[in-house]
Amino acid sequence: MRPLLFLGAFLLLSGEPALAQRSSRVEIRVPPSETRATEGPQVRALRVLSDARLRDLLRNGFPARLHWRVEVWSTRGWFDDLKGTAEWDVIVRYEPLERRYEIVRIDADGNPTPLGRTEHFAEVEAIIERPQQAPILPPRRRDRVYYNVSLDVEMLSVNDLDEVEQWLRGELRPAVRGQRNPGTAVTRGVRTVVAKLLGAEKRHYEGRSGRFDVAPS
What we know:
three-stranded antiparallel β-sheet; elongated; 35% strand; 10 strands; single chain; alpha+beta; 5 helices
């Protein structure tokens, strides 16, 4: 019921972008030369949840998904060549009854790793901004490569809420993997409206490392 009540309030939110988003970005750091062949890069998200509208959505029961994708590209040859990718998600949700935020990382196989629980949004941002090591390595041969990182931040729709709750209790895989209950015609209609509203609450960020040489031993 809570998401339906929130729908009316959300329709009243301003369409102006928050100023804080202008400084939001992702960063990527390549390991030192002696460990580049065996250690993946570190990525960081800065102020990607600082938008007041995203915070309001979180506080009203809509989880946020931060979808990371890191690619390694080879520059040898006429065209850059994609050599590998790594993807994972970070889910942030607010539990009103406990007045706590929960942050969970989900790897590509759907395995969750709790990152923290807190009552304070500032601590949520601190957890989100911790450097994360990407599970990806350059090719196992001498090459010249670079890393490209992208981050998509979106609020999960009403269609996902129940499944996220069940998954966090260990009952099923997260709805973010694309398996959803179709629901009734009425709930599908409401969810479509909310999904369209939430569609405006998506953010995309990209970053790229400099080119570097790898020489596996």
